[in-house]
Every structure is written in structure tokens, then in C-alpha cells.
Amino acid sequence: MYSVPLHVALNDGNFIPVLGFGTTVPEKVPKDEVIKATKIAIDAGFRHFDSAYLYKIEEEVGQAIRSKITDGTVKREDIFYTSKLWSTFHRPELVRTCLEMTLKKTQLDYVDLYIIHFPMSLQPGDEFFPQDEHGKVLADTVDLCDTWEAMEKCKDAGLAKSIGVSNFNRRQLEMILNKPGLKYKPVCNQVECHLYLNQSKMLDYCKSKDITLVAYCTLGSSRDKKWVDQNSPVLLEDPVLCAMAKKYKKTPALIALRYLLQRGIVVLARSFNEKRIKENMQVFEFQLASEDMKVLDGLDRNLRYNTAFFFGEHPNQPFTDEY
């Protein structure tokens, strides 16, 4: 019998809930829906909220969390809040500035996890994606080991309980792990991971280094035209997955999430639909047989929905390596 714990220990001794609520918002969703969905998620039992400076909704997520603390539903220490350092703040002197802006927006005293959003540095300024006159994205030359030292200082200052990375490949992770004078190693690598991109090599590598793999795009993708190739297959319509859903009398989404949880991955699920938000909590109520896990392993096709093409020809593009 394989039961999934509700929390797993990070390598710094803190604990992360294995099921998180993702807060990236498709443009068609109004911001007040973010407040509503976050409150519904807390009422449904979610305690882990994944956000980022880039998402431009931290005020709304913070407002929802604070209202649920005020009404007595949760205490601050019940909530695990993740935010991310954006690429225009990689210079060491800017790292804390970005985190402090997040804390101001959310009106929280600390984040539970602060991660480097992408290993690709961009030139500082007011634009998220600074460009030259020809529309070419302006990369910045920053040693990510220096960025990491500034992240360590944020942890020492108590502004972030844990620190990690996102979208790093093995080589980029090793650069941090082999850094002379490393004080804290990353607690996690948050990557795209789902049935079509099961990240088995990255997962094995992270486990060998006591780094937790956190998965985003777990149900495929919201197919936002701005980020995703519209010709890519729809994961939740996969015939094998749908047959498995019938067998277990669960939704395809629940099977897709449970598959990742049983592999020891921390899972982010995103929805702005009340029924689906509540339904996602059912992932702890059943388990997949080992032979069905093997069948689902076979769906991997190394398909990436988030190719980070919006960074252009960035020299630090992580997805050109095998993993």
C-alpha cells in the first residue's frame, strides 16, 4: 500500500506540503477571481500557495491569505507561500529588493520558499522582458553563484525560510552545488513535469542530491496563446489517461496528479473553478497500482509546453541540455 504523506522534509529541515495551489493567471481571468479562488482553495484544504513576482497577482493572493488568517480559518504558520526572483533582479544587490517588493505586495513578514525563477538573467529595469530596438531580449551577464549568495543572505535575514531554484538543468544545479563556500544548497528545483514530460532523469538526479522536485504544468497547460504552441496535444484528453480515469472512477486530472505524487514529487495544481479546486484534494483518497504507474510511465514523450521561447536566444537557456 503506497500512501502519500501530506508534507515532505526539505534538506534544510523545513517541511513543504506535497500538494500546492498554482497562481499563474491566464489573461482572461479577472484579478478578483484570484482572490476568490485562493480563498476557496484554503477552505478546501490547500495550504501551499505558489506565486511569483512575474505573475502580477501577489497582492490578490496575499489579500486572500490574510483574510483567511483574520477569520480564523488558518494561522500564518499553516500556510506555505512560495515566491520567485525575477530575471531582471539577478544582480546580487537587487535580489533582496525583489523579495521585499513581494513581501510588501503580499503584506507577509516572510516567504516560506524563495526561488530563482529562471537561470536566465535579463538587464535590470522596469520591463519584465527588456528588449533592444530590434525586439531582441536584452540578456544580462550575471554569475548565478553570486545571485545564490544573495539568496542565502535573504534566508539568513529571515525573509525566506527556504531557498531554491526553478527551471535549472543538471549542469546549472551543479554549478550552485559545487560553488566554493556554499552555505545552503537549493531545497528544490521547480520544473515542468507531467505525463508527457516525466523528468525521470532530473528526478533521479535531484533525489541523489536531496533536492525536492516540484512540478508545474502538471495537467499539461492552460494553453495560453502567449506561452504555448496551440498545436501541442491536450494532455487531459490522452486516451490512455482517460481509460485509467474510468478504471479508477476518477477524473483524468486526479490520475495525472496522483501519478506524480506517487513518484515523490511535490505537485502544483492550478484551477479557478470551484468544483475542480475541491476535487483536486481527492488526490489523497486513492492510489495507483504499480502496474498502472508503469503504463503511465510509458506516456512520456519529452514534450515541453513551456519552452521559455520568450527569452529569445539566451546563452543560459536551460532546455537545450538533455535534463
From TrEMBL:
Pfam families referenced in this protein's UniProt entry, alphabetically: Aldo_ket_red
PROSITE patterns to which the protein is assigned, alphabetical: ALDOKETO_REDUCTASE_1, ALDOKETO_REDUCTASE_2, ALDOKETO_REDUCTASE_3
One Gene Ontology molecular-function label: oxidoreductase activity
Residues at the catalytic site: Y55
Alphabetical UniProt keywords: NADP, Oxidoreductase
Positions of the record's site feature: Lowers pKa of active site Tyr: K84
Binding residues for substrate: H117
TM stretches of this protein: none
Database matches in InterPro entries: AKR, AKR1C, Aldo/ket_reductase_CS, NAD(P)_OxRdtase_dom_sf, NADP_OxRdtase_dom
Domain NADP-dependent oxidoreductase: 19-300
Family: Belongs to the aldo/keto reductase family.
PANTHER family the UniProt entry points to: ALDO/KETO REDUCTASE
The name this protein goes by in its record: Aldo-keto reductase type L3
Source organism (scientific name): Meriones unguiculatus
